[in-house]
Amino acid sequence: MSKVLVTGGCGYIGSHTIVDLINNGFEVISIDNFSRSNPLILDGIKAITGKVVSNYNIDLCDLEATKKVFEDHTDIEGIIHFAAYKMVGESVEKPLLYYHNNLVSLTNLLQLIEEFRVQNLVFSSSCSVYGNATELPVTENTLTQKAESPYAHTKQMGEAIIENFAKCYPLKYMLLRYFNPAGAHESAQIGELPIDRPQNLVPYITKTATGELEQLSIFGNDYPTKDGTCIRDYIHVMDIGGAHTAALKRMQQDPDGDWANIYNLGAGVGRSVLEAVQTFEQVNNLQLNWTYADRRPGDVIAVYADNQKAVNDLNWQLNYSFEDIMKSAYQWELTLADKVLV
Ligand SMILES: NC(=O)c1ccc[n+]([C@@H]2O[C@H](COP(=O)([O-])OP(=O)(O)OC[C@H]3O[C@@H](n4cnc5c(N)ncnc54)[C@H](O)[C@@H]3O)[C@@H](O)[C@H]2O)c1
Predict the structure, then answer these.
(1) How far does residue 164's CA lie from ligand 1's centre (Å)?
(2) Cβ(151) – ligand 1 distance below 6 Å
């Protein structure tokens, strides 16, 4: 069985990916300092998979503490590096926090990859590296633009750091650029745990549905789109998890194969905000309290991925629909409403 280190394994995407990795026979260890997550997610992973995942509660910016994990596990074959701060607005207010956390954790990890001769790395990147994309759908060849936020800049820099490192160390790596991950595991044992007010549409919708938030605002209904609202590419978080498993398998089974280093992970379909709200209402058989509000500065009108490269090269299948996203997200929100978070 192949051992994988998942950083940020108690976070939203990390936890769903761990479930998929375990289901595919990988042994997983995690590093997560719970700065943006909660230990209850480990219970959820256990409830789904029957496996207890060892999580090291340490800060990846602490090189010595991180090194101890590598000393305990000299047989790590691959690393999936999710751990990072991800809130665009917070990154604008606290840029140094973002540059420090997201980049020092990465350079520490690369230093240890070199020292302990780890072969394979998958890095969480983001469609935000494309900035205001110049073409639709966005392919991996679409030119990246100036980053719109310090957060996006840490992703561009993270990609460049890995690319440069791999020129002098024989690392196999993939940079996966996610579009809009959403939804939750169908068991509702794990899901997204936004700290403070949610920044993404789907948790905003689910928290409005439970009454935790009073009203949902749709920002702008006069954009040049089919119904006037912005368009995004929502992809089920379990499909994102599946892509990571597929990426690791491809690198391990075919290390010198003809695969690329950069892949877009999206559903490949643009959905409007209004469509998201209406689909949520329909599949969950309820009415949301929502209203139109003014456009929000900085919002891109439309962005969605061409995902064919990932589908073909990684032998990756998308198993979940837009409706599944909306159903599972609500089920998770209902579970969460009953939990006491410590
Ligand atoms: N969720 C999205 O919409 C989205 C979109 C594009 C890219 N991404 C990227 O995917 C990755 C995972 O995102 P997520 O949604 O699961 O985020 P998340 O905040 O739920 O998970 C990140 C995890 O990393 C941990 N962490 C952060 N800094 C750490 C450090 N220095 N040491 C140890 N642990 C640390 C946090 O506690 C958290 O559990 C991030 O790199 C994010 O930038 C996310």
Answers:
(1) 23
(2) no
CA proximity to 172, closest of 107, 232, 270, 260: 260
Whether residue 150 has pLDDT greater than 90 = yes
Confirm whether pTM is higher than 0.85: yes
Q: Does the CB atom of residue 181 touch ligand 1 within 6 A? A: yes
Mean pLDDT over 215-233 rounds to 96
Contact 329, 205 (CB under 8 A): yes
Task: Using the predicted structure, report yes or no on whether residue 215 has a pLDDT greater than 60.
Answer: yes
Question: Can you list the alpha helix ranges (DSSP code H) found in the chain?
Answer: 12-23, 40-49, 63-72, 88-93, 95-99, 105-115, 150-165, 201-210, 237-253, 273-284, 308-313, 322-337
> In whole angstroms, what is the distance from residue 330 CA to residue 136 CA?
30
Q: State the catalytic residues.
A: 151
Q: What is the model's pLDDT at position 1? A: 67
What's the CA-to-centroid distance between 178 and ligand 1, angstroms? 12
Pocket lining: 175 vs ligand 1, CB cutoff 6 Å: no
Planar angle of CA 200, 57, 68, nearest 5 degrees: 130
> pLDDT, tens digit, for every residue of 100-125?
999 999 999 999 999 999 999 999 99
Number of H helices, E strands in the chain: 12, 13
Domains with residue ranges and CATH for the chain: 3-183+234-267 (3.40.50.720)
Output the furthest CA–CA distance in the chain (Å, rounded).
57
User: What is the C-alpha to C-alpha distance for residues 235 and 266, in angstroms, rounded to an integer?
Assistant: 6
Residue type, 331: Q
Looking at the CA of residue 151, tell me the nearest atom of ligand 1: 43
